[in-house]
Amino acid sequence: MKKKSTRLLLVAGILFLAVAVFVASVVTIQKINGTVSRKITLEEAQQIVTESFSALPGTVATGAKYIVENTLITVNDINYGNQKDIILDCDYTTLDVKNTVTDNIEKYILSAYNFNMENEAAGKKTNATKVKQLVSDEMVRDLSESERISGTTSLYIYEIEENAFKLFLSDETINTVFGGLLDAKNIINNTLTVNVDGTEISIANKNTLRTGIKDCVSLNNYNNRKPDTNIGIIKAWNSFKYDFHRNFIVNNQWKYLANGLLTTLKITALAVLIGIAIGFIVAVIRCTNQKTGKLSFLSSVCRLYLSIMRGTPIMVQLLIIYFVILLPIGVEKFPAAVICFGLNSGAYVSEIVRGGIMSIDAGQTEAGRSLGFTYMQTMWYIIIPQAFKAVLPSLANEFITLLKESSVAFYIGVADLTLGGLKIRSITYSNYMPLLAVAIIYLILVLGLSKCVSILERRLRKGDNR
Q1: d(CA 322, CA 406)
Q2: Which pLDDT belongs to residue 26?
Q3: What is the pLDDT of residue 362?
Q4: From the DSSP assignment, how many helices (H) and strands (E) are in the chain?
Q5: Domain at 254-465: CATH code
Q6: Global pTM value
Q7: Where are the domains of the chain?
Q8: Which strand ranges, in their side-by-side order, compose the sheet holding 148-161?
């Protein structure tokens, strides 16, 4: 016992020392790697800033383009940080966007509102692009008459690769350099009423109007995520943390997976109950027909059922059962999925149970009959309990398969675990993290159930040896 404790302490010490050496190495390498490969001139810095700002409007409305074109940034001094960053001390001159929008927001909304009412009267649909085109011209005229504001700020350039520099623009920098542009967007978004002929009219549900006006001052061609200049292993970890936060933490998007998992477990549990009921009934009917020659019609129906369920893909079955059979009579998606997976599982359960029943020695049936039991009593009290014990591990494996197969339920719109992952994917446009999370959750469930099956099999073997 003492030797074992000493060995454990030695292993723990070695692991601690290895981790400490690794962390120290990473920190040292990071410090060495934290300086830029070369210094840049004022002219180069000014060119990077000018080109970056010129590219900001992209294809947005004339309002944003006018703001950028009338903003002047002058680089005065350059300093160097220890994260491959270059700090620029700059002067800026721009338009007073925030106050211009504040003073004229009612006018913009009224123009958009009247435009929308005219379209509705003419049977036309108003979209955000048309509102943007309408309001942008008015906004440019107002901005051209606004006062110019100036100030000083710091801009940051990062060396993302050797001799490759990129200007980082945070939301705070954008808001400062462009005269409160982001504040103006918030003002537009939070203005929920318009005065029409002395009457306050709510536009809280008119998102198209507010979006169209907001697009007039939108700069979409920039990334407010700070460039990561760390060494490979730290960069990979930071990227993982960023993706994890963006996919699951922001707006509590992890709830899509949690709610989807709950739905998946409900479908599986209910389908298992249906599958067991159908499987035992079909198995008994077929075994009765094979042993006694009775129930031939029901046995033929069961064989047809098995041929269809086992011979067609479960996804096709799901689509037919929901869209062709159940949807026309008003059955919802969730019960349709449960019915489909229950019917499919029942076909496989019946063959497992039938194999278990047929494996029971015929002498067991004869013994039951000699005790005065009817055929059905013999099946219920003697044969099925023995068969159930024999096929229980196989049934458990079938239920694990059913859990995985239930992932196709999203094809009919059931909000299961798979659809939860796809929902997050549609929000973040990230393929890797949401789908990996779905796969890991399924894997954990399957591994857990497989472990339970293994424990069950061991206990059954112990019972057989007694």
Answers
A1: 14
A2: 44
A3: 64
A4: 18, 6
A5: 1.10.3720.10
A6: 0.64
A7: 42-229, 254-465
A8: 72-80, 85-95, 148-161, 164-168
